[in-house]
Design brief:
This protein is of the alpha+beta class and 117 residues long. 19% of the residues lie in helices and 13% in strands. It has a two-stranded antiparallel sheet with strand order 1-2. Strand 3 (93-94) and strand 4 form a beta hairpin. The radius of gyration is 22 Å and the shape is extended.
Length: 117
């Protein structure tokens, strides 16, 4: 009976509700950062201290910034070693098994916030 094995279904790309042409133009937008007085760390830094923002999405208020050479080499190495060795890294599991990253959720007492997927 030489039945052909079935092909796995292709995952469909989820539509981004903020993508242009997806109907998001009708969604109410949050007030801008400027209108409500929100500042990025780089905007609060002293003159001459230049933060970089490789991810800067004003519409979604989503930002990832860093300060190049913000730490001297010895301090950066010490902190990285501490993070690698001294943190309880866990690999969460999803419905298809382990998620391909490790994570650690840290809070300062008395906060006991929980992290989950």
């Amino acid at each position: 009976s030489g039945a052909m094995p079935s092909r796995p279904k292709k995952r469909q790309r989820r539509e981004d509700p903020m993508e242009q042409g997806s109907g998001s133009e009708d969604m109410p937008a949050e007030e801008s950062r400027q209108a409500v007085g929100l500042k990025l760390t780089g905007e609060l830094a002293p003159a001459g201290v230049c933060w970089e923002y490789p991810l800067s999405d004003e519409r979604r208020r989503c930002f990832a910034g860093y300060l190049p050479r913000g730490l001297d080499e010895d301090t950066a190495k010490r902190l990285m070693d501490e993070a690698v060795v001294g943190v309880d890294w866990r690999q969460p599991k999803g419905r298809f098994g382990p998620i391909p990253r490790k994570t650690s959720w840290m809070t300062k007492a008395p906060c006991t916030c929980k992290y989950g997927y």
